[in-house]
């Protein structure tokens, strides 16, 4: 191998390392570091040296490159398995496609330059053109796809099969049609390479169309999940409001009859019937207790919600120190969304743990803002990606010019929701809009 070829290979490996690491990090939303690039470049050079020295088939180096990029994405960038495979396949496919497109142009235009000194700067220009094409293709893919840790992009494994198909087709074209630059090219060969150029452009277009369809499928899943969540929250609030109205009517009737109850009790005492008086008084106490809620927050909808949710979780210790201001400025429906989703997540997390299970809910007013704090026990494991419930809570917080913050410390999960209660106004854009 001459020095020019050695330098050209080094430039290619350097460019591939930069493009692959930058593309995978941006695609998965992870921050790239210089040592990611250094390690990947060193290992890529090692692979290139090994397979060149021992003269293995050209398919093996590409497979090793794919496995290496997957390992960097999985271990260094901490991406999920399917995400790492999809990102690696797309990155290697785009780089192979860029080489294929430029190779088609080289075969048509540079064949008569073999043996001439002008060929060297032209090959250098073609190599730089490869990375320009690669950058453009990466930018186009990033417009249609994001593989961040986001539940709104489900079933990422669906991308593996079309990605592998495009990758295998491009690899076959490179291995069968572009090996050594011929010194002479016939008119038929020009037609062949022109057809391959068009096919590769169509392959890129097909990939972008596939990603566009996948994006819309994900948005459709997201919309359906959000609508189901909204329907459940709406139905739950209807039930809570209906129960609040029923308890209000019962309380109203009890207050209406309280004079009669007191008259009966007075008559029993006047006649010295103490045992009957105690029994009647205990009965009145039982009736009055049934009309009250175990948790008093100042909002009947929240009171009923807490009673229902926590009443079904007897094994969980609940501590509620919460008094919502009146007027609150927050719609009952939005409070229902916050408390229902937060309680569901907290109860599910507690039930997965062993030993003491506890939930603590508190609230504090800070000027025009009100801070809701939810705390619960959980497993001592990394948090999964945020689900629809937390997304809906975040949407409510943003509606009221607030914010949502989650934190996990050991076996304790903390959810804080800050709301502006001064006006109760805001733009509520749910996550399917």
From TrEMBL:
Residues 332-419 form the Sensor histidine kinase NatK-like C-terminal domain. The keyword Transit peptide does not apply. GO terms for molecular function: identical protein binding. The keyword Transmembrane helix applies. The chain crosses the membrane at residues 34-52, 83-110, 122-142, 154-174, 195-214. It holds the Pfam family HATPase_c_5. Keywords: Membrane, Transmembrane, Transmembrane helix. Gene3D superfamilies: 1.10.287.130. This is GHKL domain-containing protein. It comes from Schaedlerella arabinosiphila.
